[in-house]
Design brief:
Layout lengths: L8 E5 L4 H12 L3 E6 L3 H16 L4 E5 L5 H15 L8 E6 L21 H24 L3 E11 L11 H21 L5 E7 L13 H11 L8 H11 L11 E4 L3 H4 L1
Parallel strand pairs: 1-2, 1-4, 2-3, 4-5, 5-6, 6-7
């Protein structure tokens, strides 16, 4: 039994791997068609192609865009394509879910130089804040103002425990995640009268391509597994199943939260 009526779409930012890829596939299993936005070079494009093929094998539609999601002109181009595929019109249109999982940011120290860490400059810090934080606002604004997303819609953004912890080289990303959570709270209040919800998802330590860019990620994975009450770390599929469940009508009264999906990791780490 499908969760949604035929012709319903989800927009996945960061759709080619990790949380975005897993969520795209899980929502497709529940009946969603998928607009996927990703930024891959030739070496990793094959993963985006594989996910599209798996979505279509489920008899769902998939349209993926390999571009910079923080670029205004490219975002407008995607919005035009979404309009063409779904039809612009009344509130409560065919886009039900926006899932933000963009993980393109710079790692490095904020104020001190060291032998093993790059010192971040203004350009890198502001790029990280824009891609991993502010882009949520621009994509939400685009979908809502064009009436492509309306009552019953669900907005999700991936945050991390780095909002309250210090990890080497993670300063700019930590700031972006704090910014993202602030945006979620304000979006939730602004869109409540229109019947849309917005929540942040904080996953436990998860072995994704993005994690491999964090200095010392091997130790993070090892420590999380050793102390986790379930004896394993979080997977992208754990998050995807949660997003699918929270996208159902019964969760309409849940909005403006940071929801932990970590199997109790925070309780023992």
């Amino acid at each position: 039994m499908l969760d949604v009526e035929p012709g319903t779409w989800a927009v996945i930012l960061g759709a080619s791997s990790g949380f975005g890829g897993a969520t795209a596939l899980e929502l497709a299993r529940r009946g969603y068609n998928i607009f996927g936005i990703h930024f891959d070079r030739k070496a990793t494009q094959c993963n985006a192609d594989r996910i599209q093929e798996e979505i279509r094998a489920l008899s769902r539609e998939a349209e993926f865009f390999n571009l910079n999601a923080a670029d205004d002109e490219k975002r407008d181009f995607v919005m035009l394509r979404i309009t063409a595929r779904t039809g612009q019109g009344q509130w409560g249109s065919k886009v039900r879910v926006l899932f933000h999982s963009l993980a393109f940011g710079s790692m490095g120290n904020l104020v001190t130089e060291s032998a093993d860490q790059t010192l971040l400059d203004r350009k890198k810090i502001e790029m990280t804040l824009d891609v991993m934080g502010n882009s949520l606002v621009y994509w939400t604004h685009g979908l809502v103002q064009r009436k492509l997303m309306g009552r019953g819609g669900r907005i999700f953004a991936m945050t991390s425990a780095g909002t309250s912890r210090v990890w080497t080289g993670y300063g700019a990303v930590s700031a972006a995640k704090c910014l993202l959570e602030s945006h979620i709270r304000n979006i939730a209040v602004e869109l409540a009268p229109f019947g849309l919800t917005a929540n942040a998802i904080e996953a436990g330590v998860t072995d994704t391509p993005a994690l491999h860019h964090v200095p010392g990620y091997e130790a993070m994975l090892s420590r999380a597994k050793e102390t986790h009450p379930s004896g394993r770390v979080t997977t992208p599929e754990d998050v995807a199943l949660t997003v699918a469940a929270l996208s159902r009508p019964e969760t309409q009264w849940m909005t403006g939260n940071v929801i932990r999906v970590d199997g109790g990791e925070r309780l023992t780490s």
